[in-house]
Amino acid sequence: MLNNLLFITIRWLDIVDILLVSIIMYQLYKLVKGTVAIKIFLGILAIYLFWKIAAALKMELLSEILGQFIGVGVIALIVVFQQEIRRFLLLIGNNRIFSSKNGKLFKLLQVNKDEKPKLNTTQLINASRNLARSKTGALIILDLHSELKLYTVSGEKINAKISSSLLENIFFKNSPLHDGGVIIQNNEIKAARCILPVSENQSFPNHFGLRHRSAAGITEVSQAIAIIISEETGKISFSKQGEIKHNISIDDLEKNILAEL
Ligand SMILES: Nc1ncnc2c1ncn2[C@@H]1O[C@H](COP(=O)(O)OP(=O)(O)OP(=O)(O)O)[C@@H](O)[C@H]1O
């Protein structure tokens, strides 16, 4: 056995292999960090490493049993990590060369991108300022990559140009549309009262309720960004990639939004 270990030759491709696996593992870890999935992830990782060690040491029976377990485990893995796999694939698809913001690939392939109407940030910022001042709870999702159709249909179709007064009206406490989130796409309020996925991130402070958690939930599973106005405190928060910047100024909100456009 010792002989076997001594005669292992390492090619430069092996080093690239190890490096790539480390990068993928780190990205996966970043995705599941702070969620319940991290415990399952570490458990599976431990079993996998144990299996590989058993196989390298030629412990036939143990590596056979663990191998069977890992084989079935792949299906269980896809089910358990459905959301994380989605986010991981989005992360890859969001690579600079593919991103429509950068547009290199589109130029290379001579694909004509449709000109989308520019987001009217002035109306959006005015609405956020007024909603915060009047402590009107609000959840606004900016679907910058047109990927939230599934969630848009869960609400009431609006299809109207963005305007500060319309947004304020929607979130007005007695309005029948004030519950849930508003989804904005291509400078249009697509729908209101949308039901969004709730984040399971356990690292959020306890005072974050469902409004904040569903903002984080939708930005976890998509490239959308979200604005949250707290009904309780009037504080403004911004969410991107499942993270929440809490209690930011209106100027910071504007900067954060502009950075995404
Ligand atoms: N799954 C969901 N998708 C979209 N909106 C939701 C969802 N669940 C709850 N909400 C919205 O969140 C509101 C409840 O907010 P809650 O008080 O629990 O959150 P919060 O984060 O503490 O916000 P606030 O500071 O405004 O109280 C509901 O009235 C509804 O409008």
Automatic annotation (TrEMBL):
One MF annotation (Gene Ontology) recorded for this entry: ATP binding
Q: Which InterPro entries does this UniProt record tie to the protein?
A: C-di-AMP_synthase (IPR014046), CdaA (IPR034701), CdaA_N (IPR045585), DisA (IPR050338), DNA_integrity_DisA_N_sf (IPR036888), DNA_integrity_scan_DisA_N (IPR003390)
Entry's PROSITE patterns? DAC
One Pfam family of this protein, by short name? CdaA_N
Q: Which residues are in the DAC domain?
A: 82-250
Q: Write down the EC number.
A: 2.7.7.85
| One GO term (biological process) | cAMP biosynthetic process
**Main EC class the enzyme belongs to:** transferase
Q: How does it assemble?
A: Probably a homodimer.
Q: Which family does it belong to?
A: Belongs to the adenylate cyclase family. DacA/CdaA subfamily.
Q: Which PANTHER family match?
A: DIADENYLATE CYCLASE
Q: Provide the function of this protein.
A: Catalyzes the condensation of 2 ATP molecules into cyclic di-AMP (c-di-AMP), a second messenger used to regulate differing processes in different bacteria.
Q: What is this protein called?
A: Diadenylate cyclase
* Gene symbol of the encoding locus: dacA
